């Protein structure tokens, strides 16, 4: 048996277990994520995030994400912000701009630091892709949805009933229209630039927040004429500021990251 040091962190309530694999390699992250994410028999989280050295010179560090069901995610905006805070406040870097290698490419983190504390992080999430330009209707009498890829797939439905996230989100994640499964957002425009959103994350279910989901919602609101290029996405666990910048067509997400606790677990 060996002991693994971990850190629990969250971004707007989207909580993950973080392990510095440069010190503590994880041989089977799939099984570890399933066991450790259990909220009754494990540590409890939306998944497991591995922080590693970058295998390429174009990036400074790497990130791998495993959902609570063991499936590997392409990208997570909330986790990337937490990694920025972790690296800086744990003195692994003095940089306030970090290039992070993810399964959906290199993301740039801009740390907003005051008195040695990372108060928030802006992530350049890259350009969105409207991979399915036809806004198609999926059963159950739903309003039209918009498919947006932020390095991972999202289907954004604008509706007055955002609380259908549980029953409908579960069904849509596995809908045949999404062969790789899909993250599902239910969004309601509250007033100009403020959008209430609830999310069903593939592999994790209902989560308090989803960074890429917030980005996808803001993009969907813009392309459907419901909002401008800047939006505040109000999720269950907090609010994220999203900008679809005209100069480069990249999505910039800004929000907090927080430590919860540190611990050790035997494997």
Describe the protein's architecture and organization.
The protein has 267 residues and is of the alpha+beta class. It is 16% helix and 43% strand. The chain has helices spanning 29-37, 77-89, 165-173, 211-223, and strands at residues 3-11, 14-20, 47-53, 61-67, 72-73, 97-102, 105-114, 117-124, 145-149, 153-158, 183-191, 194-201, 205-207, 230-235, 238-244, 251-255, 258-266. It has a 17-stranded mixed sheet that branches. Helix 3 links the parallel strand 10 and strand 11 (183-191). The longest helix is centred in the N-terminal third of the chain and has 13 residues, at 77-89. The chain is globular.
* Number of DSSP helical runs: 4
Helix percent band: 10-25%
Show unreliable segments. 133-137
Proportion of residues in β-strands: 35-45%
Q: Overall 3D geometry?
A: globular
Mean pLDDT: 93
Q: What is the oligomer described by this structure?
A: single chain
Strand segment tally: 17
How many strands, which pairing sense, and closed or not: the largest β-sheet? 17 strands, mixed
| End-to-end separation | 6 Å
Order of helices and strands: EEHEEEHEEEEEHEEEHEEEE
> Structural class, please?
alpha+beta
Radius of gyration computed on alpha carbons:
18 Å
């Amino acid at each position: 048996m060996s002991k693994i040091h971990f850190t629990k962190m969250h971004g707007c309530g989207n909580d993950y277990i973080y392990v510095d694999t440069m010190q503590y390699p994880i041989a089977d992250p799939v099984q570890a994520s399933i066991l450790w994410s259990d909220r009754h028999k494990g540590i409890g989280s939306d998944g497991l995030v591995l922080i590693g050295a970058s295998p390429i010179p174009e990036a400074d560090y790497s990130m791998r994400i495993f959902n609570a069901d063991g499936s590997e995610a392409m990208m997570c905006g909330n986790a990337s912000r937490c990694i920025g805070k972790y690296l800086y406040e744990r003195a692994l870097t003095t940089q306030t701009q970090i290039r992070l290698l993810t399964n959906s490419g290199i993301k740039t983190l801009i740390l907003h630091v005051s008195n040695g504390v990372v108060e928030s992080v802006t992530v350049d999430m890259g350009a969105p892709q409207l991979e399915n330009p036809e806004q198609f209707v999926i059963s159950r009498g739903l309003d039209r949805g918009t498919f947006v890829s932020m390095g991972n797939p999202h289907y954004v439905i604008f509706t007055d009933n955002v609380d259908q996230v549980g029953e409908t989100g579960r069904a849509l994640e596995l809908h045949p229209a999404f062969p790789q499964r899909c993250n599902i957002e239910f969004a309601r425009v509250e007033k100009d630039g403020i959008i209430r959103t609830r999310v069903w994350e593939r592999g994790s279910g209902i989560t308090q927040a989803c960074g890429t989901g917030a980005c996808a919602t803001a993009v969907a609101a813009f392309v459907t004429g419901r909002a401008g290029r800047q939006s505040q996405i109000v999720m269950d666990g907090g609010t994220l500021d999203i900008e679809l910048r005209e100069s480069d067509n990249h999505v910039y997400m800004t929000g907090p990251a927080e430590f919860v606790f540190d611990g050790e677990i035997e494997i």
